[in-house]
Amino acid sequence: MTENPVIAVVGAEGPDEIPGLKALESELEIRYPSAGKPLSDYVRGAEILLCWDFQFSEFQTAWENADQLKWIFWAGAGVDSLLFPELVESDVVLTNSRGVFDRSMAEYVLGLIIAFGKDFPETGRLQARHVWKHRYTEQLLGKEVLIVGAGSIGRQIARLLKAFGLKVSGVGRRHREDPDFGVIYAGGDLDSRLAAADFVVVICPSTPESRGMFGAAQFEAMKDSARLINMARGEILDEAALVDALRNGTIAGAALDVFTEEPLPETSRLWDMDNVIVSPHMSGDFHEHLDVVAAAFFDNLRRYRGGEPMLNVIDKKAGFSLE
After folding, report:
1. What is d(CA 300, CA 294) in angstroms, rounded to the nearest whole number?
2. Integer angstrom CA distances of residue 141 from 107, 114, 178
3. What's the rounded mean pLDDT across residues 72-85?
4. Integer angstrom CA distances of residue 279 from 112, 134, 276, 284, 289
5. Are 83 and 71 in contact (CB under 8 A)?
6. Is the bond preceding residue 263 a cis peptide, omega within 30 degrees?
7. By three-state DSSP, how is residue 245 classified?
8. pLDDT tens digits, residue range 304-323?
9. Rounded CA gap, 300 and 235, in Å?
10. 90: burial class by Cβ within 10 Å (0-12, 13-18, 19+)?
11. Residues contacting residue 173 through CB under 8 Å, at least 6 positions apart
12. Mean pLDDT, the chain, integer
């Protein structure tokens, strides 16, 4: 590494799009994409790749030109779209924005659970039609929530839901007792734990092991009154099997913030299902979150330039941070 590394940026066309980056231009060479200049051109000679677009997936096409690359900063949490084989096997350090989105996503999950329990979607539909219809709703105290994914986001979700009065447990890599989840079950126990859950929250990283984790068998294992909340990646679920489960009453509802194809096509059946809440991959984003992400980059940049240990380093073969 050098004290004054060259930084190549993707996902932003200039310094004004990344809070605070302009101040570094007097001491560092920072390259931005421009018309007619492919990534393979401006990544050559760069030590750092600043990925400001968390859905960026074209880096593999420029990999051969990344001749000086030492570190990639990822502005999102999940890094699955970046983990092509050549990068995984390389010595390039990959860090993400772990911790930035935890509280926001936990609040989003709590909001969805309340929306389901208190039937807010139906209230909105009735209001739009000017219909006065008194109904009973659920009391949520003591409801069982199974959180599939015991990383930092899942942990924050567990803490907030417990404080609200819900009973939580988790599914992770191995079985263990845990102060936030009570108990974390091993991944192999997933199917047996689904039957007890009133809400299932999916927040695991997208890895070869987790893709397709939820299909018809898992939906059949759930209560017919249960709701599924997916905040991870669309490919964790078999969407066709989910649509069938929602249509035939195998499960009561779903809230989906991620999809196998994004934006969700207008022709998707999920848009028009009364028992589905669709949101556009926004659960972690909050006002000023870009300032927090930028601050995380500047902290790690300081560490990189000073030769200090970096934060949020991804185990590229595992697909997530092991911190």
Report:
1. 10
2. 17, 11, 21
3. 94
4. 11, 27, 10, 11, 18
5. no
6. yes
7. helix
8. 999 999 999 999 999 988 76
9. 31
10. middle
11. 150, 186, 187
12. 96
pLDDT tens per residue across span 101-138: 999 999 999 999 999 999 999 999 999 999 999 999 99
For the chain, what percent of residues have pLDDT higher than 90?
92
- Between β-strands 227-230 and 199-202, what pairing exists: parallel, antiparallel or unpaired? parallel
Bridge-based pairing of strands 182-186 and 176-178 is antiparallel
Q: How confident is the model at residue 37 (pLDDT cuts 50, 70, 90)?
A: confident
Q: What angle do CA 86, 235, 64 make, to 5 degrees?
A: 15
- The stretch 205-217 carries a mean pLDDT of 95
pLDDT tens sequence across 168-183? 999 999 999 999 999 9
Q: Radius of gyration (Cα) for the chain, nearest Å? A: 21
**Domain annotation for the chain: domains and CATH numbers:** 7-100+287-321 (3.40.50.720), 102-278 (3.40.50.720)
Complete edge-to-edge strand list for the sheet that includes strand 7-10: 30-31, 7-10, 48-51, 71-74, 93-95
Instruction: Check whether 150 has a pLDDT greater than 80.
Output: yes
Q: Maximum CA pair distance of the chain?
A: 67
| Interior/surface letters 211-236, b for 16+ CB within 10 angstroms, e for the rest | eebbeeebbebbbeebbbbbbbbbbb
Q: pLDDT digit string (tens) for 256-277?
A: 999 999 999 999 999 999 999 9
Is 16 exposed, middle or buried (CB count within 10 Å of its CB: 0-12, 13-18, 19+)? exposed
Q: Which residues pair with 50 in a beta bridge?
A: 9, 73
Phi/psi zone of residue 135: left (φ > 0), alpha (ψ -120 to 50 degrees), beta?
Answer: beta
Cα–Cα dist 109/154, whole Å: 10
Catalytic positions, please?
233, 262, 281
Q: Provide the whole-model pTM.
A: 0.94
What's the token pair of residue 48? Answer: 């750092």
Q: Which amino acid is at 187?
A: G
Residue 131, H or E segment: none
| C-alpha span between 115 and 124 (Å, rounded) | 11
Q: Helix 102-117 vs helix 152-164: angle between axes, to the nearest 10 degrees?
A: 40
